[in-house]
Amino acid sequence: MNVRVGVIGVGMIGQDHIRRITQVLTGGSVTAINDVDAARAGQVAAGLPGATTHDTAQDLIADPNVDAVLVASWGPAHEEQVVAAIGAGKPVFCEKPLAPASDACLRIMDAEMAAGRRLVQVGFMRRYDAGYRAMKATLDDGGIGAPLLMHCAHRNPSVPPYGFTTDMIISDSAVHEIDVVRWLFGEEIAAASVLRPRRSGRAAADMQDPLVLLLEMASGVLVDDELFLNAQYGYDVRGEIVGETGTVALADVSEVTVRTANRHGGRVPVDWRDRFIRAYDAELQDWLNALAAGTSAGPSSWDGYAAAAVTDAALEALRTGQRTAVVMPERPEFYAKAT
Amino acid sequence: MNVRVGVIGVGMIGQDHIRRITQVLTGGSVTAINDVDAARAGQVAAGLPGATTHDTAQDLIADPNVDAVLVASWGPAHEEQVVAAIGAGKPVFCEKPLAPASDACLRIMDAEMAAGRRLVQVGFMRRYDAGYRAMKATLDDGGIGAPLLMHCAHRNPSVPPYGFTTDMIISDSAVHEIDVVRWLFGEEIAAASVLRPRRSGRAAADMQDPLVLLLEMASGVLVDDELFLNAQYGYDVRGEIVGETGTVALADVSEVTVRTANRHGGRVPVDWRDRFIRAYDAELQDWLNALAAGTSAGPSSWDGYAAAAVTDAALEALRTGQRTAVVMPERPEFYAKAT
Amino acid sequence: MNVRVGVIGVGMIGQDHIRRITQVLTGGSVTAINDVDAARAGQVAAGLPGATTHDTAQDLIADPNVDAVLVASWGPAHEEQVVAAIGAGKPVFCEKPLAPASDACLRIMDAEMAAGRRLVQVGFMRRYDAGYRAMKATLDDGGIGAPLLMHCAHRNPSVPPYGFTTDMIISDSAVHEIDVVRWLFGEEIAAASVLRPRRSGRAAADMQDPLVLLLEMASGVLVDDELFLNAQYGYDVRGEIVGETGTVALADVSEVTVRTANRHGGRVPVDWRDRFIRAYDAELQDWLNALAAGTSAGPSSWDGYAAAAVTDAALEALRTGQRTAVVMPERPEFYAKAT
Amino acid sequence: MNVRVGVIGVGMIGQDHIRRITQVLTGGSVTAINDVDAARAGQVAAGLPGATTHDTAQDLIADPNVDAVLVASWGPAHEEQVVAAIGAGKPVFCEKPLAPASDACLRIMDAEMAAGRRLVQVGFMRRYDAGYRAMKATLDDGGIGAPLLMHCAHRNPSVPPYGFTTDMIISDSAVHEIDVVRWLFGEEIAAASVLRPRRSGRAAADMQDPLVLLLEMASGVLVDDELFLNAQYGYDVRGEIVGETGTVALADVSEVTVRTANRHGGRVPVDWRDRFIRAYDAELQDWLNALAAGTSAGPSSWDGYAAAAVTDAALEALRTGQRTAVVMPERPEFYAKAT
């Protein structure tokens, strides 16, 4: 089966997903394009034989040649577009965040529940990374006993000197660990705290970088997450789960070991693409496969909502300096198997 | 573009390539099947909508719905099938060996040169492994200076207790290193010797396992290759190139590090699929991409011939216990850019 | 020169230091023994040709055949014994803690300052570990830029099922990190907090294990220290300093890598002796060398006091759940070069 | 007990042993010095309170204040000095080689057997390295099954541009592996071959560097030993034993892992002192301890002889290009427990 995908938003990430569908993955094609920048939409469509452009997201969603929708527009537009796709009964892959505000996420959930079946997959791609998957398999197999703690680090070499705020360290970077620890441990996050270590002189003047985010899982498992956006030396994502009888950690990802100039060692990835490209591929292939099979897969609207609710608490904790409880309703039965 | 592939031979490896083309890669479909076992051909075709079966390889090659041919039959049939595909002007991917006998490989080369363009890619997939590619990149970038030596090990956990001969350690296992060192160093192999270490008690009674194959490159670079088919502990492929100013080695491929019971460490692959599945994917995607672009890529008929010629020398060295020179003609200009 | 050492307290650690002085190190001998258990003192002395026993610590200190005193008695006795040695003008090596109470440490400092020269070395042996020394060298050489954070883990396989309290996780275990981070960063600790992760079911019923201790250095460097006394899998001390341009971490300490049963990896130490025996050797050799040279070396009374003051704050933080500032006077000029 | 050592030969290695005995180890002192360069002997003695100089090695051996002799003179002088020490009934530690010629080693053995007790320890210090000891323990515990192969590499950053001949790669460098594999496997070496890889342009014009030495153990275990004296990048000694069910390899010896500039990794030692200093310490302490206990330890005269006999065969193999059998008599019962 070939899934005909309509793509809303063809900035960097949208174009990368188009490349993925047309040049890497199997089972999908891109048949329609929409972007707030009509010229950009036209340029991208020009490289895609058979793809048409639409003036509005609504038109794209209504296009009978579109089986499924990929939303890669900017966050504030997500709610309207995802709800419209749900309304049209079309499956939708929505890049993170599902919506910037948690109440918008709740409205998406309501629309999906009203539609009566799962239609939304949220773009939390770390769940598809071979390292995190092996980590979860080790944990689930009982190889290290019950989990007690997790240590994470999320280091970027640098961020642009302006436009990237301290809040964005939580909402754009930490959101990845927020989702992945919910998935790893199969439970919700109960509270968040934020610590402010010594600032790096390499960070912009108004930016508190690094931060340490503390997450308390419902069971008491404690997660510490070092977030360092100007770490200079590379893009480095680390994680170690400490269990009652052992630990499991992400391994380094270098293909070769080099010995020169009195050093031996491997490389550190240069950026998130370098580190997670295969996870992005696997994520979208999983979406296409589920569509072909008529099922749903991957992170759900509930996962998108939960990430937003925890982000809210973490931002509050950043502002106040206080441990902040996460406020969330019970998970609806509809999403029981979602995580 | 969609390349319509006809597959000759649908045993384990043929079926795996079909799975790859239909479920993993982009740009190809399987439209025709042939196998000496017609019932098996029918069963495989039954799972492929739109695929037809052919009584003979010749019929499959002639099928106008076949753009390109994938040969995964047993080795002795390769020559006739590959030559026929060339004769029909259709590109052909041929699993290793190109042909068991080096003179058969020469005849394939003659047919291809007569056809006037490169039509054959041989299935030496290690060239597509991320580890070997990083190793070659390090070497080519001058990171370790001119190469002088290479140490290899090729360990399988076990082979069937009968049917696997000592000769096959050379022809089926070592052939991978024979090809990959030609590619890594960009030069031919001049001579081969075989050493017989202490036998493992785990090997079949009539099998000399392990072996050490010594390969002398034209430049003098010396390659030692430990071949151990009953290594028990896992499937482990190792390699280290020693250059004038440093070394580069394949890294371990474990996704996580586990600490339990007073040990820390990672996993060793269980078999060749586990270790090289991505390389097989990349190899065949490269073939499909080249076909779509109207070009050729990957290991050529010359590479298939050279591997056969070195295998001949290594088998002679195994029989006689003597260093044996590789006998090869000059590489035709036609294949100048092949390696 | 041969330093004649009198040893007060010949329990496990005292006997181990005697073995060290007599069988491993150079430049010292054990000439006098005292223990609250006179029978034990006699037994130990019987194995030491030329060593005499003394009924009291005071007698031992006064013995003209004792050049220097090693205090390995229980903590509450340290103050009186160390002050007496100072009073006699004899150098003293005091096992940690210098004294359980910080005010007792202050009185020792007063006595030493009154004596006019440094006479006390405190037994914080991690400063002599090759790993921590290489870490400090990397930091001091500017190899990772200014330090911002440090992640520590201190894992014991198990502690006795009774008698080991949650407070002792701070006072007996964390005290090692408390000292070593002061030394690594060359600055004092300003505040402490304690987090309570999910309890391990392997810990005694009344014990909160693991804990996470947060230490804020005067400069803002934030240290998190996972303390896990029932980690089962081995004795594992980890540390990573994150600087503005890179990180430096303690490496694993395995001598060999083993590949068996689909795993590759190394060993984890079984206990603190296994991990730190060379550091204990180096520590005491440094003391003997300094005595021979007429100088002083190693952790000072000030370091012993600072560790006690931080321990006080951390225990308060454990009790109250609050971040607790460390209360300390200025470091006297007398100890300016001590750290 | 204090062993009074007389040192014959106070060049670099002799002076290093003196430093070791006087400043690092316990149980020994240096009481007498002899050197062919009387001025150098005097200078060294001047720094050793109580040490006297002797005009001849014979005088030193006869000195009643000398309990045991350490021979660190040049190789051709060893036979006469060691035999003289044996004749005087004094234990002797002889730096490698025991003697350059194997027949000289046999004469030393004859003298020792005539004396009726083991008096000679030869300075093969790798047996005392923590890595090799852990490797042997793994092997002896059956952890990898019966050994079949061993891969070794012995890399120096560089050697002086003149004066270091190709022969010396065998006699001075490979001799370490020659001894250590005899000890690891507990058996003799039956034959040697030498391979000549591509020459490094960094080697002196008349030097074949690197070499590969192949050693066949009596049981058939095959050892390949890459010898590369101008490897530039560091001093790197590698080893991996391949057994029937697993492998054991020397681990890297870096104390810390550093992450900077898109690399992670550790250091490679700069020279043999850096790599093996602890092994030298342990070797000489073992000698002193054995003397104190009235026993003997470590590599024997037989081991010194066997190393010479294998070196003879390897040099012959280097000259002729042929596999060369090692010619050795049966090991005398007197040395039965020596290896």
Show the helix and strand layout.
Four copies of one chain form a homotetramer.
Chain A: E1 3-8, H1 12-24, E2 28-34, H2 38-46, E3 52-53, H3 57-62, E4 68-71, H4 78-87, E5 92-94, H5 102-115, E6 120-122, H6 130-140, E7 147-155, H7 166-185, E8 189-195, E9 211-217, E10 222-228, E11 236-243, E12 246-250, E13 256-260, E14 263-267, H8 272-293, H9 301-320, E15 324-325
Parallel strand pairs in A: 1-2, 1-4, 2-3, 4-5, 5-6, 7-10
Antiparallel strand pairs in A: 7-11, 8-9, 8-15, 9-10, 11-12, 13-14
Helix pairs in contact in A: 1-8, 4-5, 5-9, 7-9
List keywords for this structure.
homotetramer, 339 residues, alpha/beta, 6-stranded parallel beta sheet
Return Rg of chain A in Å.
20 Å
Query: What is the first-to-last residue Cα distance of chain A?
Result: 27 Å
Kindly state the number of beta strands of chain A.
Answer: 15
Biggest protein-protein interface? A-C, 34 and 34 residues
Round the mean pLDDT of chain A to the nearest integer and report it. Answer: 96
Measured as a percent range, the helix fraction of chain A is 25-40%
Give the overall silhouette of chain A.
Answer: globular
Uncertain stretches of chain A: none
As laid out across the biggest beta sheet of chain A, the strand order is 12-11-7-10-9-8-15
Oligomer: homotetramer
Residue share in β-strands of chain A: 15-25%
What does the main sheet of chain A amount to?
A: 7 strands, mixed
Order of helices and strands of chain A: EHEHEHEHEHEHEHEEEEEEEHHE
Q: Tell me the structural class of chain A.
A: alpha/beta
Number of helices of chain A: 9
